[in-house]
Design brief:
Blueprint: E1 2-6, H1 29-34, E2 36-39, E3 49-56, E4 63-65, E5 68-70, E6 76-81, H2 83-87, H3 92-100, E7 104-107, E8 118-120, E9 128-129
Antiparallel strand pairs: 1-6, 1-9, 2-7, 3-6, 4-5, 7-8
Length: 131
């Protein structure tokens, strides 16, 4: 069984790294995006997952306004799931969604916040099933 989930990672409990601290030559949205990585948190439902693939990094809506980063990651993951888990439980999709929504995107700007990543997270439950 395949299931696509879009993560809406619009919140954080930290402060964005100060982009003005990096050289002007590195102040491009492509460089900033290269400093981000998806951090899966699937432990609660890993027994249901046969495979997963990041099909869209969800960074297309991110841009700059001066030296300020605007937007947030909205990655899409396609999961291949053990169908038997879903046949036994009619609430399995909701359970699965709750089991993965704590995933995040880490943003580490080299030389600025190397030891203190900024995490884009879903604090409001906007992560949703697409298919």
């Amino acid at each position: 069984m395949k299931l696509k989930i879009q993560f809406v990672l619009s919140k954080s409990s930290g402060c964005l790294p100060n982009i003005s601290l990096i050289s002007k030559g590195l102040r491009s949205i492509d460089y900033i995006k290269s400093c981000m990585r998806f951090v899966p948190a699937f432990e609660d439902v890993e027994d249901m997952i046969l495979d997963w693939i990041l099909i869209d990094h969800g960074l297309g809506n991110m841009s700059f306004d001066g030296d300020k980063l605007v937007g947030y990651p909205m990655p899409i993951i396609e999961f291949t799931l053990d169908e038997a888990c879903f046949l036994e439980n009619t609430e399995a999709k909701t359970h699965f969604l709750h089991g993965v929504w704590e995933s995040a995107y880490a943003f580490v700007l080299p030389g600025v916040n190397d030891n203190d990543p900024y995490y884009f997270e879903d604090h409001n439950g906007y992560t949703k099933i697409l298919e």
